[in-house]
Design brief:
single chain; alpha/beta; 6-stranded parallel β-sheet; 3-stranded antiparallel β-sheet; 19% strand; binds adenosine monophosphate
């Protein structure tokens, strides 16, 4: 099996989508990625297929976006496997691939950046200056090329999802942003292209993230609402396993504003972690009061 068409320029993709919208049903699902694909990405592709139907069009992009990496981050060594990714996309039922070069997405003389305020000031924002501006900029370009579509993003990057929902609304993109549950390995580790960096020993330690979230989830289910207590339950597990912790935070699930430790989180709240195991930066989260307990185990995908 192979994907029907692979484009390298905005013009090529627009033309492929124009034809697809006439010859098939008009619905399009779009899955932006940085490649090095795993089951988490493929679940987004399958979700896209469900949304557009058998005769709709599912398009994925693979682009390791330089503007969302800081100077000391892993842009140069980020895993890349375009051939392997094409095979995986085809077997997940993807129709079109957009895999542009950096000089196509950022043509000579480009001067435009997109910034989403507020939602980017907490959580990963302070630890990755410029990151969300890079993400918002490239996704705005991609939305502009793809046009009317569902765009499916993973809840693993919960803050990114919130930022991109806001972006689509504020800039009137004809895009319906859809969040997909986190896909996990059997032990509960959230799948990530960066997991490839982990040694077997680090991979074992990385299980502490989902274990901490499960402990807090159980306490929340038992009636615990104090933000500081829920955070401490996660922190205890993560501290024992991580090399450095950027944050363990309880925030409002929509505004992403952090709760004071003494505050009650109410009936719905985000619990989010960013930390390093070895040199690898890992993210995980759960929405208390919304996500099912099974979302924290590796049993579903
Ligand atoms: P990336 O290639 O890491 O930029 O991710 C591309 C898309 O896949 C983003 O919307 C991510 O949130 C999503 N994604 C990555 N890992 C997972 C996962 N384990 N479960 C669900 N979605 C994921």
């Amino acid at each position: 099996m192979c994907i029907r068409d692979s484009s390298k320029t905005p013009e090529e993709l627009r033309e492929s989508l124009r034809i697809a919208r006439i010859s098939r049903n008009a619905r399009v699902a779009f899955v932006p990625t940085m490649g090095a694909l795993h089951e988490g990405h493929l679940a987004l592709v399958r979700e896209g297929r469900k949304l557009v139907g058998d005769d709709g069009t599912v398009v994925a992009s693979i682009f390791v976006n330089p503007t969302q990496f800081g100077p000391n981050e892993d842009f140069a060594r980020y895993p890349r496997d375009l051939d392997g990714d094409q095979t995986k996309l085809a077997s997940a039922g993807c129709d079109l691939l957009f895999a542009p070069e950096a000089r196509v997405m950022y043509p000579e003389g480009e001067r435009t950046r997109v910034r989403v305020d507020g939602l980017t000031s907490g959580l990963c924002g302070p630890f990755r200056p410029g990151h969300f501006e890079g993400v918002a900029t490239v996704v705005a370009k991609l939305f502009s090329i793809v046009g009317e579509a569902y765009a499916i993003f993973g809840k693993k990057d919960y803050q990114q999802l919130a930022v991109l929902r806001r972006l689509a609304t504020d800039l009137f993109f004809p895009v319906n942003v859809v969040g997909h549950p986190i896909v996990r390995e059997k032990g509960g580790l959230a799948m990530s292209s960066r997991n490839a960096y982990l040694s077997p020993e680090e991979r074992e330690r990385a299980l502490a993230l989902s274990r901490g979230l499960r402990a807090a989830y159980a306490a929340f289910s038992g009636g615990e609402r104090r933000a500081g207590t829920l955070v401490d339950l996660v922190q205890k597990e993560v501290e024992a396993a991580a090399d450095t912790i950027d944050y363990v935070a309880a925030t409002d699930a929509d505004s992403l504003v952090a709760f004071d430790p003494e505050a009650s989180v109410g009936d719905r709240a985000l619990l989010a972690i960013a930390c390093r195991v070895g040199k690898t930066r890992l993210l995980d989260n759960v929405v208390l009061g919304e996500d099912p307990m099974t979302s924290l185990s590796g049993s579903h995908s």
